[in-house]
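Q: I have 426 residues here and want to know how they pack in 3D. Can you give me a structure?
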Amino acid sequence: MKQRAWVQRGVTLGILATLCLVGTSFVTAQQKEQVIVQGDITSDRTWTPDKEYILSGAVFVRAGATLTILPGTVIKGLERSFLVIDRGAKLIAEGTPSAPIIFTSAQPPGQRGPRDWGGVWINGRAPINAPGGEEQGEAGLTGTYGGNDPNDNSGIIRYVRIEFAGFPVAPDRELNNFTLAGVGAGTIVDHVHVNRGADDGIEFFGGTVNVKYILVTGPGDDGFDWQTGWTGKAQFVVIQQDGEVDPSADRGIEADNNENDNNLLPRSNPVLYNFTLVGDPRPETGGGAGIVLRRGTAGVLRNFIVIGFKRAGLDIQGAVSQALAQNGELVVSHSIFFENAPNFASGATASLVERFTGIAIVDPRLRDPFNLDDPDFRPADDSPALERARVASPPDDGFFEPVTFLGGVNPQNDWTKAKWVHIARE
């Protein structure tokens, strides 16, 4: 084919080479060789940090193939591009604290923003509660997820940043920044930072995957969202809302079982410890509630700090989830709520909150949680979040770590300040 310049939204990527590898085309850049990636990846591939990978359109890693991404590799998404890992495929994206793997916009720094590209979507074969046990992704564009293998393994996602992602694909349908759809417990997900993307920061559609050390800054919608029967675990999660990203910036956590049938099984029933949820209290910006539990979700939420949300710290919506809270299948305990408006919405009635152990309305004295450029989520030395009697001990099950503090950040070891984390406005 003829050589030509590849230009999209003002991004000139160089001269397209005549190499004919399935799903990729190579171009020459002044500093790093740039690799245009498009279409299907059907055999094992390794992406390396000496090259820069540019996603063009929908990129699928198909069943039987493994995409390995080495530490320090940068992947950039063109407009309306996204990466999907099919059921039966694997993504091995294992960065390091000093060399994270970065998924970001193809726009130059200073011109980047939410909706620049579509994000990362992983499909697995773990159980979900859709009729028939399988479901199509958003607008039929992201493949099929769900199955009957709770230990399904879709790979490793560790020390990874995902920036400026998410875009609408149909009315009321958007790609999230990072989506785990029917992903199994054999998949490792930890140390992931999602920054300034449209729609949700991280969303679970069923599955059994466990996650740890998750930071979401400036999501356009919810920070942490689940539905369709997620039964995994999570620990050390921090969500910081920024109403300037999107006036509809909504909830710290939005939790459903199934919107069409609240009692479908397996019921969403995750176990969560040590979250810090920070709203945007500025009156001129948008914002929602800290935690909304609804549509039949169950679950255990302990050791939370929830501050600064405009539309309540906690709300439990709908008869099914409220009944689960009454009978002890939906539990919120050992947590601090402060300066939310109000701390408890009408759905989180006084009788329900009284059933929850260790709920306090007290200033957690976080150091600088509302700073959008350089936040400090640590409790101060005199914080009530460090009072041992307030803290619930997580299960000793090999996943959860023992703690002596509330919230997602150990004041003696602030993982959100590590080199792999970077909060950029654009």
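Q: Anything worth noting?
A: The CA atoms of residues 198 and 348 lie 28 Å apart. Residues 1-22, 25-29 have pLDDT under 50 and may be disordered.
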